[in-house]
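Bit of a strange request maybe. I'm writing a small parser for structure token strings and I need a real example to test against, not something I typed by hand. Could someone generate the tokens for this chain?
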Amino acid sequence: MADGVDALRASSDAAAESSQAMAPGVTPADQASAAAVGESWEHGDETNASAPAPPEPDAIIAMTSTVGVETLVCGKCRHPLVRPADLITARIDTWADAVYAYELDVLDSEGVFCYSATNPGDTRFDVVRSKPSSTGLVTHGDPTPEHSWFPGFLWSFAHCGACDAHLGWGFSLPVAPDPESENQPPNPPVVEFYGLVLTKLGQEVISEDGVQEAAAQLDRVRAHRGQYEADVGAAIQMLNAVPVAIAQQFYPSLFEMDQHPAERTRSGTFLDAVRTVFEDWRGGNGGMVDAADSEDADSPPHDDDDAEDEDSRVSDPGPEEPDAGNTDSI
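Reply from user aminoacidic:
Good idea to test on real output. This should exercise your parser:
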């Protein structure tokens, strides 16, 4: 047996030496040239002008940060949410009567377990799970165990942190009460994973630099959110007071701010423009209308040509907050 092993080793060593000595199609001149290039890289020989300089470490980092990676994004505003490393590919126990699991290729990952889940309202969702490290997601509402698709987990609504669109649900474990903190409010449950609706997501190639830029933009949008909601809320009061023929010129800007959160930082300019038009219209109507009273019965009626029903009126800004009767509930 030892002779056989020694023979195999000898044969392997000989093959290795042969492959190192001369690769197929490589001439001795090629090997000498390659050796010279390697020598110049190692020792910094500047006499060989044809030898390229090795990449600097900073350059390698820069190249890595600008290479695009397939990313799941919000289907409404395209804010990046889930990178490949954030996907949860493993299968988890489900409520068998309402959910069945299947495998799907997601973000170039094969065999990612997804879930076809139906809520009590008979609305079906195709859901993929992601880690809590997924950026740009926020939860709304008190977590509840009712009709949870994943037994043992509570659920609450998950929204895009940039545009507030409902994208799925955050799942958390119950928090045991602390007997020493009877007078303190309980800590909110920590999200263990997100269940995101595939049809509410998009997919784009985004670099790490792009993700960092989107995160910085999200910080700016969040810092301006209170002002944005106040500005647009005041503007909407005035727009709902004037005829639709006048108000409709501002609809594209409202849509732009709704779809592209970065535009929300100009809400003050938008409010000023609406106020100017409203004041001009109010002056032409004898100064009898005030935006705060636009909902009152004493407000002057619209002309027949400008009549509007409830669907044509502008809604206040703010997060989509589904309730228990909403089809987006579990």
